[in-house]
Amino acid sequence: AKRVYLLSEARGLSRDLLGGKGHGLAEMAAAGLPVPPAFVVTTEACRQYLRTGEVPGLWEEVRAGMAALEGLTGKRFGLGEGKAPPLLVSVRSGAPVSMPGMMDTVLNLGLTLEGVEALARATGNPRFAWDSLRRLLAMYGEVVLGERPEVFEGMLSALKAERGVGTDAALGPEDLEELAYRYLRHLEARGTPFPLDPWAQLQGAIEAVFKSWQNPRARTYRRIYGIPEDLGTAVVVQAMVFGNLGEDSGTGVGFTRNPATGEKGLYGEYLRNAQGEDVVAGVRTPEPLERLKGYAPGLYEELLQVAERLERHFRDMQDFEFTVERGRLFLLQTRAGKRTAQAAVRIAVEMAEEGLISREEAVMRVEANALPGLLRPSVDRDQAPRPLLKGLPASPGAAVGHAAFTNEAVERFHAQGLPAVLVRPETTPEDITGMYLAKGILTARGGLTSHAAVVARGLGVPAVVGAEALRVFPGEGRALAEGVEIREGDLLTLDGGTGEVYLGAVPLVEAGGEALLEKLLSWAEPHRRLGVRANADTPEDARRARAFGAEGIGLCRTEHMFFREDRLPWVRRLILAETPEEEALALERLFCFQKEDFKEILRAMDGLPVTVRLLDPPLHEFLPPLEALARRAEEGDEEAGRLLRRAEALKEANPMLGFRGARLLLLRPGVFRMQLRALLEAAKELREEGHDPRPEVMVPLVADPKEVERARALAEELFREYGPIPFGTMVETPRAALLAAEIAPLVDFFSFGTNDLTQMAFGLSRDDAGKFLPRYVEEGLFPFDPTERLDEKGVGRLLRMAAEEGRKANPRLKLGLCGEHGGEAGSVRFVADLLDYTSASPFRVLTARLAAAQAGL
Ligand code: PEP
Ligand code: MG
């Protein structure tokens, strides 16, 4: 099969084959937009190369592609002829899924020592020619030959010091020539000489791009975003155009709408007299595109038209890169722009209202998992002191955390459960781990389209970039801001919506309601069949969930009520009780607490179902740690001594699989009766007050129908007194799923506890797996973390089987899901046709509603 396509041949081929960049270029070329000639080496070739280390016949196809580029540009590769400059190309990676900055690129490829002379002659600009060569040497040296970029930067700084100049711009052509020779000699001495044959350069670069698919930062990125490991990258080989030929040249990035707010209008940044990588790398801070209106109105007008045509062609917000070579505009890339959750919603709604897309498309356009980002807090300006710094508002939301200057520092704070703010001069793709784990990101340099800004928005991490008054010394673990020293660990607050940064922890305020989101959800709701409830065990959570549109509570965990300080002594007396009287007294007190708790929650959810789950954790969780008890007992504390003996008796080697849930409730039926009576009594009192409580009760962790039968009998005793309410069981052990047909006739509903079901299906402790699961995913052993996203193949199979068999055995059976997966979009879509409702934590109720609607479209 063909593996190299010219843009003109590539029209209509898939993104999977051409990669996003190649596909975008082919589409733009087809739409008549100005694109420099290029060809694409397919992802298929990359996959073959990574599998076998070679692609027979590829080189002939590449040669033919180069011949075509020579024809289209009228230039010769590697050597200028007469007055024509040589054909130089860029070699870029382009995966089917956008992975900004994660893989490698080489620019100015094809330049040789003779080529430099020809380029200098043709452009009349020897400085530019030598600058192009030294850039090629540094990029090629890094990407293909494996030298560290600091080495080239170091040699550049050394030369500047020798010449006594401060900036790169102050170096003349001879200086850059000298630098190029130093680079060449360095690479030679290192045993990795730079190939002065342009064809060898090309071959090396294409192979390096193939291999860059496997580099560690690309793998990390794929893990974070759940991108499959086996896609491979395409390679785009494109005739170079130069943005660094003078003041009438430049390079920029444009968004057809504002990626932070979604506001319609051309938005972006431009760097005069610079090459493309300078913008994305965030090394120099570019100027807003708006400024072009002043000194290049024609260009600005042209960009506006390009933006309009791009949107009409792609029917989505585009993020495009362009270069201006001596006043002439070229588009180098376009892709659907990354955007904040706010922007995603606004763009989808407004595009539907403009008639560019349908309402259904608008609903599908918004990544449901990103919605919690919409609800991110901001700094409370009424309580905020004067900001220490102001930068660009790159990713909304406010964050409070400890200053960390390196990935490692962020990881250290994270390991201690402390929030960190990553503070960097600028970020590079190497910083991805720290950016992912940090609560906020702050950089001294870079614009709104710098790496830091793009990645932070994608991750949903609040970020302030380009805080020019900040000087960061990562090696020394400190930074300076307006004369104030920030040391590692100091608390910082930043607001990515305003760009302000404060010393210390500043109070935050929750986000306000979102009218546009309401509109989008109103378009989505008619397509939703799956019910959405919330996991809530406090009245505040219940009220918040209801405001987000929850249709009831799918899981109210009662143990949280036991943990409260005023109840704990009574819980402990219950555990210690040696006589029925002692137990009865403790239960009596707890009954009063529970009844009040239930009343408040039922009241907050008046008219909607509230599923109360009876006590689940093992009793020892309510006791102080053994060591503490032992110490106190030693000091003569008698109560501690009794608790210690009880705690030792209750101690289990594996409490997760121990005396908890149904096992505990059936062998300590006093607890069962107390909780259920409190619930029934609470409902009764509310009804008497004129309310409409809808309680349901559920038993956790059953594994056998006999347990359910016994629990039901206990419940029936109270139902006879108060009247019945829906009675259900969690299905969270594999055995309960396997025996669903026998259990279903005994209950009114199942609620799948996918946290435990995942834990037990995988044999993977949910409390400890965090220590190694990320590595498992990184190594490609698991495609994603099954504690976050439901494993459809295994756990999903258990769930489907139990749902189907349960329903067959009891046609009136209601089915819900209440594990963490209940608020994860992919998992919600999976169960959308299988169950009656899902239950999500309050902030993820919106995600669940949208995902469930998307499943119906
Ligand atoms: C579950 O196991 O999925 C569940 C909802 O219960 P918990 O997380 O409380 O064990
Ligand atoms: Mg559970």
TrEMBL record:
Q: What Pfam families does the entry give?
A: PEP-utilizers, PEP-utilizers_C, PPDK_N
Which class of enzymes does this protein belong to?
A: transferase
**Ranges where the Pyruvate phosphate dikinase AMP/ATP-binding domain occurs:** 16-67, 84-287, 301-354
The Enzyme Commission number assigned here is 2.7.9.1
State the family it belongs to.
Belongs to the PEP-utilizing enzyme family.
Give the PEP-utilising enzyme mobile domain ranges. Answer: 420-499
Q: Which organism is it from?
A: Thermus thermophilus (strain ATCC BAA-163 / DSM 7039 / HB27)
What keywords does the record list, in alphabetical order? ATP-binding, Kinase, Magnesium, Metal-binding, Nucleotide-binding, Pyruvate, Transferase
Q: Which cofactor does it need?
A: Mg(2+)
From the broadest rank down, the organism's phylogenetic lineage runs: Bacteria, Thermotogati, Deinococcota, Deinococci, Thermales
The signal sequence is none
Q: Which InterPro entries match?
A: ATP_grasp_subdomain_1, PEP-util_enz_mobile_dom, PEP_util_AS, PEP_util_C, PEP_util_CS, Phosphohistidine_dom_sf, PPDK_AMP/ATP-bd, Pyruvate_phosphate_dikinase
- Summarize where substrate binds, as residue positions: 557, 613, 732, 753-756
One GO MF term on file is: pyruvate, phosphate dikinase activity
- Residues annotated as binding Mg(2+): 732, 756
Q: What is this protein called?
A: Pyruvate, phosphate dikinase
Give start and end of each PEP-utilising enzyme C-terminal domain.
517-855
User: Active site annotated at which positions?
Assistant: 451, 818
